[in-house]
Design brief:
The protein has 715 residues and is of the alpha+beta class. It contains 23 helices and 27 strands. α8 runs antiparallel to α10, α8 packs parallel to α23 and α13 runs antiparallel to α15.
Amino acid sequence: MTIIAPRASRRDFIRLTSTMGLAAGLAAALAACGGGSGSTTSAGASGAAGARPSVDPSANAAASNPDGVITAGISYELGTTGYDPMTTTAALTVAANWHTMEGLTELHPVTRECYAALGADLPVKVDDTTYEVALREGAVFSDGTAVTAQDVVFSFERVLDPANKSLYAQFIAFIAGVEAKDERTVTIRTSHPYSLVAERLSVVKIVPRAAALADPAAFDKNPVGTGAYVMKDNGAASQTIVFERNDKYTGSHPALAKTMTWQILPDDTTRTNAITSGAVQAIDAVPVANLASMSDPVKVAAQQGFSLLFAMFNNRTLSDARARQAILYALNYEEICSTGMGTLATPATCFVQEGHPAYRRAKTVYGYDVEKAKSLLKEAGITTINILCSDHGWFSAVRPIIRENLEALGVSVNYDEKKSSDVYSFVDGDQGAWDVVIAPGDPSVFGNDADLLLRWWYAGDTWTDQRMHWKGSEAYTAVQTKLDEAVKLGDWIVIFNEGAHIMQYDTPERILANPSNEFVEDFIGSGAGLMQLGLARVSDVPLKEAVRARPGEDSLEVDRRLKAAGVRRVVVLDRRDRPVGWVSSKQILRTSRIRSDYNQELPIVGASSTLDDALDTMLVAGSTEAIVHGPRRRFLGLITVNTVIKAIEEISSRAPDEVSAPLGHNTGSDSASSADSSPAEDEAADGEPAQDDQSSQSRTTPDAAAAAAGGDGDE
């Protein structure tokens, strides 16, 4: 399998220019389920995670047994029996669909890197608004029917249809249409150049048109997909979700066990006892209080991720921004993280976690300041706070701290605690008074780019209108504008200084190669040269020819061709011109005929990959060359380190007048990018959104010290 992971593409200007500066509340560690002896970590995460390490009783968690069994205890309640990937957003059902469904692309569950799944390759760019994706060879649904381009078109159209009210539509709103080019290829057209096409295709799972239309209710309970597993029991009656290996699966991530069983165990004590007694091989969300008692053969692991505990404010009852700010200043984040979460969490300093490509410390980071909180509440005229918490076990020790923090303000605190599904039913149905909801979430299960993570709460109607009652405000409009601009693929980037004066308006390449002044140079940083590698594609540079061979050819004859060409390795291609080996003269002469099963990990990149990707691939492989493939993984040639070096030298040496560009400064300011927060911006900053079983967040504040006027990149 080849995973293409752009490191520094034009989209990184979302990070460089930071169109949004965000003050978040609470961030916690992300946990993944471990596997048992003879099983695998593929037991899967159950969605949102907080201070919730997972445990693994196996000394070798990575071991797998194709005929084995995986049994896991899952902390999240089912909440719904609906699994249709068009509509479900609950943590547990989404996690289940990861194993039974595929998109054209998928994100690696650990690294979040984008790779071709049901697509034979990542989307091939035809022009700035047109992409093509060929389907994986031999792909069939678990019911045995062949996957067609019409199924892909149907899957996208039903998500985009407003009548279906799919929450996933907001993630692919840039798609103008999906058409069948032929039975095995689809054409995707965008309404404007867009920087995250490959990543976003992963949110739409491909389903069989005939089955989904024949009986929608039955399909919702037991959907049909192309994943490595087939769901045999949806858990509605048994509280146990059962999967079996899909023997019709043709992708690169086959099932590593014959069966997989998820026991739904939301009670912390029950789940902990299950792992220590050996009733299950793995659990998620280990209670902080039980960490010390976990001992061999049980092993505990935690992974930093986006998942966080958030505060969602009711902008009807807390319409004054000072009231929302007061609540955030009232919380003792250090105690919450150290005592409430056993040091497995850290106070958030940005909307995304440190280490995320888009991380930038927020302009406003709320800290513990009781006196300031009291003063703000008094100014806002607030004497009562109605707080509603979900009952997720992983932050059970946090809830008393939050309640005590608010009661210390000297106001009346009405506290209520409900199951997660009941929290949102209460809020959505206007069933009673509430001012702030405290709950966990993690929309990174849908994707990891900053735009998606932000849009989960800050775009669309569910969170902004139905729950937060924030939609329609001046701050809401400003945020939508910034989100839309940040993801558009443009030829120009504008960089503002802290006074909102334009420092440089130019192409990404020119900004990196020729910063207009010291401010821009410092803003870009020392890594500008390397970033240029992410602005050029493998398809933009000449490829080196290679000696080719086919399985079954005479090894001596192939060796003669190698010596004649003066090279050391031959690319072995199958009958469809896909590389299956890249072997030396010594290797091929070990047998009389060229083999088709050389045991090696090929250094391979797609033609649409960046030069940064290509260089990474070569460095990891310890090679000076890498194999390049195009659509349907057909071999195109070799890319070399020297080619990459030459490309970056050419970019750096271009004269400024080679590209006409309005380079330099002006004295005007952009009202949408003012460095000083307006009252409307303050309202966005103190804390609006919330989440679902599958979403997360805290607070955000627009910060326009620098803003992108276009220019994030094509994938």
